[in-house]
Amino acid sequence: TSRGGAPTVFVLGKACRMPRGLELGIQSMARGERSSFTIKPSYGFKHPTCAWRLADARSEEALLDFDIELVDFSAGVGVQIVSESSLEEMVVKETVEDGSGWENPRPPYKVVADVRARQSESGPTFFETAEATPLRFSCGDEEAVPETLEACVNLMFKGEVARIYSRKPLGDSRLIPAAPLSPQASPSSLPAIQVYEVILRDVIQVRDVIGTGEVMKMRVKNGNGEFPIDCPVVDCHCTIHCVGRLKESGHVFWDTHRNENETGAGAGMGDG
């Protein structure tokens, strides 16, 4: 990566694992430190946990020299691997600030998020939402945002701030364009790591209440408490405000707000 390439990003001891001797060596380093390591084949490419491979398999029997600079690291509790098929295609999500609640976005939930995308960790921004116009999309809409980015967002909680690292271009979509192509520094260097900074502003619950598509719910305003322990059950006396309308024509057939003296309709759960 010193040949004009960007530093590589990985999760230590997980997914597409590097030579075991290198993993152990990095664990002895401090942020900003540069060290060299000499590693025998048994703790190099021949170690059973190593997933890295050389083009010439015979070279894996050789004594290895590594020159390593530990640019940065973050606590493992805030790091998740989203895609791990290979080092070149690994996608990593890092939590910068924790969110709240217990629900992650998932189809058919709706999401409101701020997104900033950069061509590399220190590179130019190629997409950024304005403060007044955050990104809004439905989970499961395959054309709204790149599939891998949605998979990362689906691991977040409301209010969470995260960084997503991807060496493989995430592709074009309706709401977020693909990163512009940049010239590769050298034939041996890996593509730069794209960085997506995401703030999950809101998670709007859209629920198939009975699982058949016949009763669909979309949360318009958050209430107090958590589902399901703070929700009414059969025999609870409930007070509601309600606007009922025909979906296609918009005709309102019930509106408790029309009477200024109306404080809400009362009913017992399970009443006939």
Structural class: mainly beta
Terminal Cα separation, in Å? 71 Å
Biggest sheet overview: 7 strands, antiparallel
- The dominant shape is elongated
Q: If helices are DSSP runs of H or I spanning 4 or more residues, what is the number of helices?
A: 2
Strand content: 25-35%
Show unreliable segments. none
Measured as a percent range, the helix fraction is under 10%
How many extended strands?
15
Rounded to an integer in angstroms, the radius of gyration calculated over CA atoms is 25 Å
Give the overall average pLDDT. Answer: 83
Oligomer: single chain
How do the helices and strands follow one another from N- to C-terminus?
Answer: HEEEEEEEHEEEEEEEE
Secondary structure layout plus pairing:
Elements: H1 20-26, E1 34-39, E2 64-69, E3 79-83, E4 91-97, E5 110-118, E6 125-128, E7 135-138, H2 147-153, E8 161-166, E9 194-204, E10 206-208, E11 216-218, E12 237-240, E13 243-245, E14 252-255, E15 265-268
Antiparallel strand pairs: 1-2, 3-4, 4-8, 5-6, 5-7, 5-9, 8-9, 10-11, 12-15, 13-14
What would the keywords be for this entry?
single chain, seven-stranded antiparallel β-sheet, two-stranded antiparallel ribbon, elongated, mainly beta, 272 residues, 15 strands
